[in-house]
Design a protein that fits this description.
Blueprint lengths: L1 H42 L1 H4 L8 H13 L10 E7 L4 E7 L1 E7 L2 E7 L6
Helix pairs in contact: 1-3
Length: about 120
């Protein structure tokens, strides 16, 4: 009887660990995907070929918010930093995001902090 209890407790601990790792990995994966999207947006490939025209910082913020929502990351405009540099002919755009993601496991939760940016 005691061995069964140990096995059940061990399996429960293993299941909880797997759930925690899975949820944490999902948040990390979403962050990596968002970082890739920030690189793409800052490169302005679609703007350079005439598909989209990012005229204002608000345009960039809106685009980042839309991209983040695809990964279940919900941002407010004030969480997004847009900096411009370079020349008119060859602009350089820097994008950064500061957000937290909550991981919930059976009534317990903790926050993961992320700061993806368009820098290499």
């Amino acid at each position: 009887m005691r061995i069964r209890t140990i096995i059940v407790v061990g399996l429960l601990a293993l299941v909880l660990t797997v759930i925690a790792v899975w949820q944490t990995a999902a948040c990390e994966f979403a962050d990596v995907e968002l970082r890739d999207d920030l690189h793409d947006l800052s490169a302005q490939v679609s703007a350079r070929i005439g598909l989209v025209d990012f005229n204002t910082d608000k345009d960039f913020r809106d685009a980042v918010i839309r991209k983040a929502e695809r990964y279940d990351i919900y941002l407010r405009p004030e969480q997004i930093t847009v900096r411009r540099g370079g020349t008119l002919k060859d602009p350089v755009i820097y994008l950064a995001v500061d957000y937290q993601a909550r991981v919930r496991i059976l009534g317990y939760s903790f926050m993961l902090h992320f700061t993806p940016s368009s820098e290499q």
